[in-house]
Amino acid sequence: LHSLRQRYGGNLIHTYAGPNLLVINPLSTPALYSEKMFKGCRREETAPHIFAVAQSAYHQLLTTRQDQTIVLLGKSGSGKTTNSQHLLQYLVTIATGSGKVYSAEKWQAVYTVLEAFGNCSTTMNVNASRFSHIISLDFDQAGQVASASVQTMLLEKFRVTRRPEAESSFNVFYYLMAGADAALKTELHFNHFAGNSAFGLFPHSKSEDKQRATQQFTKLQAAMKVLGISAEEQKTVWLILGAIYHLGAAGATKAGRKQFARHEWAQKAAYLLGCSLEELSSGIFKTQGKGTLPRSSSVRQSTDDTDSSGNVLSKATAAECLEFMASGLYSELFTLIISLINRALKSSQHSLCSLLIVDTPGFQNPRQVKNQRGATFEELCHNYAQERLQTLFQERTFVRELERYKEVHKTPITNIQTSTVRTLSRTDEARGLFWLMEEEVVQPGGSEETLLQRLFSYYGPAEGESTGHTHIHAQTHTLTFCHRQIYALFSSCTCYYRRIYIAHPYIRLKFSLDDPNRKSISGMFAGRSSSVAVLSGSIAGLEGVSQLAMRRATGMRKTFTTGMAAVKKKSFCLQIKLQVDALLDTVRRSRVHFVHCLLPRAEVLRATGSPEESYDPGLMQIDVALLRAQIRGFKLLDSLRIYRQGYPDHMVFSEFRRRFDILAPHLTKKLGRNYIVKDEKRVSNYLRE
Ligand SMILES: Nc1ncnc2c1ncn2[C@@H]1O[C@H](COP(=O)(O)OP(=O)(O)OP(=O)(O)O)[C@@H](O)[C@H]1O
């Protein structure tokens, strides 16, 4: 702790803790990422740095030809996404061929688009990611990037329609509302905005916010252009976003017949989607019978799920029906954006092995920023993903090391707290969500209902923080909130069916094909294969063309299809678990490098807005209690102890032989260049001598 404080005070944000890198968010933009740093950034040779982690992973990829993954862990706002970008910046600079197909500019554009569509402002971070993603770089024989792809999961799609107080919707809505030029504004009916919105979606009111959003919109358009997203395609994206905005402005009736509350706004949404008001209204509010569905594999899947427990939409309120549609549309749009990004990154060049970068939304607990509300279901899901990755860290750091030590020494290692993940999780900050999820959802007899109740015991306002009415009110509110969320998510299959109804080529049977908006929207969705559609709304970006990308996609699909029986039971939580399983399965196949991102102080990201604008050397101070909690949560001290006492740096005999037999030319001479080794251990010992 002392070292970290001293280093941080001296503007040294990177520190090694054994094999892992710790990065403390500088809350400023220090000059640490210049091209000068690229040179000789070998872990063994330089001071701790995020580039050195990239270099080390790349070096291991080249020498072992084994896939490598860099996993970023940490609280929300601790700097995971920023560090992922630095990793990529380094890798594409050192390992991109002369063709520059994967330039740093292109990656910058990828992140600009991802941040516009998948980030928002939360109580912990003004630009928080609300989805998990894997960036994959596939390398060829010469160690150059041959192809790349992005897979995303756990998108918080319901944020479009409801979210905790004082948090925003996805950035892109504000960019579009502020930055659309006059022609686009007219086209989207954005010349004046509604006073009401069922989704709480309003343009920025402050002029500086508006100005920033306008700049961001220009930046987004430029980034889309860099990624080869045509003007026509961009327009389609704006049409869908515009339609979602107008659906919010239209709202839904609170009682009586389910219908739009303000028809003039609904009319605008219908126009943008290219259908009539009646068609849109019945698509959203009317219950569809089983027989009316067109036959297609993906549609059949949805009907199975929908009808087994009665008609979900008939139970949902009009507002919920509207929310299903809007968030479903957004989720489809997001999947489409990922496809467009992958189109720009794809290449059919042969590749040998991959380097993956995994970034998921960070741990978050509203109480950390003195927020009295309980956590939302989405926060639970993101914490769950983080906790599973943390479990992987422990598995790789402790379990294997302890076994190896015991194997060599025949006695167990001392001094290491070998508490199981279970007890660990229960006591640390992550609050045992991993086990909560596993116990309540996956075990027989588990149910979402009990999950919610237990969620409360973890996330309800703490004792002594407040008493009486407010306390209970906060809990009830969150419970209702969670219930609704789950209810909505449960019904997402119905929503999915409806999305197809709107977006699928089948729409042609129903809606006028001649409508230009309709044509461009269905044209964009039509190209996607049905196998991609099966995972629609869960994992996006599985349409890779390179061999390695296809192998990854098959692995992820398999996780879903083996659990499909369970998915048919419509357990949304299980679907979340499957998405995280797919992520973990992909990571597990590789050698993993961990980067722990640490938050020096809470609230500061909220308080100061963009850290870049508020650089003040005096800010390099640390909230010691917060830092200590993070170090404990990551189990960093134990990982250091095991690093000292165990065998953290090791290589298997075959690797040792391959790497060092150049030093024993007499051996190669005697046995031939490609000598076949039966006993690697014996040859390795021979080499050592
Ligand atoms: N190494 C760094 N150098 C400069 N700025 C940084 C660094 N790390 C983080 N920041 C700043 O901190 C802010 C939060 O970082 P970032 O969004 O990357 O966090 P995160 O861990 O990805 O958050 P979330 O989990 O909520 O998505 C960013 O605005 C960024 O500018």
UniProtKB/TrEMBL annotation:
**Assigned GO CC terms:** cytoplasm; membrane; myosin complex
Give the Gene Ontology MF terms in alphabetical order: actin filament binding; ATP binding; microfilament motor activity
Q: Which InterPro entries match?
A: Kinesin_motor_dom_sf, Myosin_head_motor_dom-like, MYSc_Myo18, P-loop_NTPase
Q: What CDD domains does the entry give? A: MYSc_Myo18
Q: Which UniProt keywords apply?
A: Actin-binding, ATP-binding, Motor protein, Myosin, Nucleotide-binding
Q: Which family does it belong to?
A: Belongs to the TRAFAC class myosin-kinesin ATPase superfamily. Myosin family.
What is the protein's name according to its record?
Myosin XVIIIAa
Q: Which organism encodes this protein? A: Cyprinus carpio
Q: Which gene encodes it?
A: myo18aa
